[in-house]
Amino acid sequence: MATMPTRADVWLVDLGMVAKVRPCLILSVPADDDNDRVLTTIVPHTTSTRDSRFEVRSSVRFHKPGAFDAQKVVTIPTVKLIRRIGTLPQDQMTDVEDAVKLWLGFETAS
């Protein structure tokens, strides 16, 4: 991997045979220490939306219209990242952060 993932980047990620390769939003901060594990927390993008309150709609030019699904937040080895395809605008990143906080019970719906 030539570049390190940065928060708000969208990367193509190999999520395995069932979940396949799909765009994922980088949620975690980059590791900056040799003692940090080489892991990245992501939010997968889906085109099969259910209009859940945990889905954040996204329509940026570098992937198909759909949503980032906060219910599928997961931490993976960074080697699963294939290539960077873009960066999510700050307003959409904030919406994803809010959905993840809601899903994890850090905030209540307003």
From TrEMBL:
Transmembrane segments: none annotated. GO terms for molecular function: DNA binding; RNA endonuclease activity. This is PemK-like protein. InterPro entries: PemK-like, Plasmid_toxin/cell-grow_inhib. It holds the Pfam family PemK_toxin. It comes from the Bacteria. One of its GO terms (biological process) is rRNA catabolic process.
